[in-house]
Protein 1
Amino acid sequence: MKRSLLAVLALGITPPVLAQSDATDAVVLTGATVINGDYWIESASIIVRDGRIECVGEPEACSFPEDAEIIDLDGHYITPGLVDAHVHFAQTGWLDGRPDGMQAPDVYPYPETAAALSANPDRWHAAYLCTGITAVYDVGGQAWTVTSDHATDTDRSDRAHVRAAGPLITHASARNRFFLGEGASDQLLFLPMEDVAGVREQVRYLESIGAQAVKVWYLAPRPDDRDRLDGLLMEIGAAADAAGLTMIVHATSLREAKMALRAGAAILVHSVSDQPVDQEFLDLLTGNDAVYVPTLQAGPNWGRALASVAFAASALIDDPNGCVDEAIQARINAPERMPSDLISPAWAYRSLEGNGAEIALMQQNLMAVFEAGGRIATATDAGNPMTLHGPSIYREVEMMQTAGLSPQAVIEMSTRGGAVAMGAEDEFGQIEAGFVADLIVLSEDPREDVRNFRSLTHVMRAGVLRAQSGLRVTQVD
């Protein structure tokens, strides 16, 4: 059996350790333009002490401590650290990181890959910080994604903040190819959605392991089963509310998205992509004060990955700052050709052709939500095929801008918007006194074009400033 590259990685080849430096009693960043969403301060000073922001403002507003290390960033731009509000630590960024890889177990031995992922989630923390992402929301994975210290010990400056939902509740598993069936319990991704007593027990289980949300994977039910499943979704919403847990729903069709909002969903992950959203949907979304998480690239990236293995042709990796895990790079750059009975070339062509129409509809719906005053958080669905941990954030913000959003709006959605989705808007996502000192330094102005997030020069996490060049996994030409 061919081993997954991640499984090999777990046997002893480890990614580079992030460089650590001890913060002085105080650090002053001075001279840069500080950008907080739709307002900014030219030639600002930021005083950081003990991992938090002590003062931010024009130089005369912040008295420099005598013991401070002063770092001149004249000509640069500082924003809060980026937040990716939809990731999966239990997935690799390639086809081997999904249970559907079990269709070709000799090529994608999912149990080995799953074990390797749980053994070393810090590889994804490294990719996130390398890219400028300082907080992530893991909205679905095995129990370890909640219970491991990678998610519970994130005050460290070498890890991103993590909020995690754990295994997904779904009605789809028993008839869907993603179902693990007899897989080990610690690799279980899905919890069954079968009856009222069962879904209440699933919510109690998620609460017991420390999950910070309840995620429901709510694909369009069969017409003859809609009423029953809609009722169970309402039960999950009530149970989650009673447990004090956020309900997150994956519902990409308009009918199911509306049903999710009626059931109390606080976050809708993925765009509505089957038809334009209507006023009823917008009223439900804004009435719930729910967060819309568009993940514009995730579906088209699936098509790219499947076409890659249909034709044994490598897909382009967009990694301007050298942050993609080397094992995943190797897998993507040398894809195995899948048999035509699993992935037909004709189907792959049709999938690629349909990407443009799907993206256009999702972008249209994103603008409808924005114009209605809905909350929006930037998110990638990182871990899914070709949606790579870390640098996928760049394409996502660029697609949001292309949809019609201003750069300032995208900056807000990619910082404070993500913190709101994570329930941590009083901790990070803004450069304000009292907030955790999570910020990024750019050489180009993101207010002009969000493509300038690619010009990352430094990352500060929990008050420790690192040059981006020291966070790279690979060298950049």
Protein 2
Amino acid sequence: MKKLSIFAILALLVLGLAGAAQAADIKASGKWQINANFRENNDFLGGGAKNSEENSMNIEQRMRVAFQFIANENLKGVLDLQIGSNNWGNGLYQIGAGRSAGTNAAPTANSAGNGNIMLRKGYVDFKWPGTAVNFLVGYQTISLPAAFGGGSAILDDQVAAAVVSTPLTDNIKLLAGYARPSDMNGAGATQTTTIGSGASADVLFAALPIDFKGYNITPFAAYMNAGYQSGVGSSLAGFAGPNSSTQNGLKGYWGGAAFTMTAFNPFKVMADFNYGKVSYNNGGGNAADGGRSGFLFDVAVDYTGLSMMTPSAFFVYSSGEGGNSTEKDSSGRMPVIANPQNWAVGSFFFGDRDFINGFGTNSGYVRNVMGFWTAGVSLKDIKLVDKLSHTAHLLYIKGTNDADYLKDTNVRAASYGGFLTTKDSLWELDFNTKYQIYDELSVHLNLGYINADIDKDTWAVRDADFRTYGSKDAYRAALALNYTF
């Protein structure tokens, strides 16, 4: 009887745990990616020791899994986790991934290693009782409005934030929030000492989506105050200017609007205007003044009247640096918060959203190449055979940064192949293929070619290798297996 009583208690405990687990419905989703990238001359350097992108091949992997813990239609929690990305044979995917590789070929069985799980998102999503006011509180994706390019060119990243949204009318909604992208004070688990003043960065933002039949326009604004010890200072690529240093914090603001029109079906028109300005805080004792300000404008037209493809034409312009920056304190490029994850046109120089990292070290990500204009055409989602689709891009890219800017010895974030002057230009041709093996599993083959015309005399002021070797065309072939569930 005693044994039976113990088993009964255990059975009741298991049933109780099962009932507790059912208190919230759990939904899982994810995307697992394995990419092989073959590339040559992605830094456009014709030779020399610095040609690190010549004849390289790597295989990389990333696994994302997201869970929704749904209490009811008004309350849920979201947890989004990631392992990777990294190359096979390196870091997370070396011998003994998830354990310590040790000093020999056999991994140490019970030691912590490189297969660590990274938090991408962790937030509570709820409506205030009896209202339509919605709150998102916690670590989440914050992206300012964008109609074209796949995401905001200013801010599109995971960050700790609190966001509230509410309808004002049937057609107008208000969204506002606060984010803290960095806090270097000692309260965090990874900090051992308190740094003190100027150790945090804060962002306030708001947007007003206005949606009528056939039209949508969303004006937005954002403000940032980053202390000089916050880790979000003016030495980062998105904020760097002629007089920036690691001792600068910053104050900045951004504004703009995203516009989409479908009223003239089958034409779809998309346009964005973004403007930003930052001024440096010299809290660290650096007496240099300075800042950065500029804009980005884009417009695109899709024709959606064909069943077998969607033709598209687009134009993007971003302001660049003026003349010799030794005569100026400020940068002429638009400042960029964090590292926008999704903004790209084409699928090579600016990045490839189908792949984990579809570009070279110096190019890719709009914050690194700001100061350019590009015009192009695309044939998207070409469907001639069941389960098989193609996309083709043709782009012309030219810099808007004055070539004399490179003569300044204090230039920051002006890397060869990524920073384009008015004397540098590129032609890009991409042909991408996707085969849908199952509804959840697809294989991709993306091919790219860039004809580079980068001025040797302009870049010779940076390094003699550029004068000796000049620029060289870039090639790319990338194969991906994507499992989405």
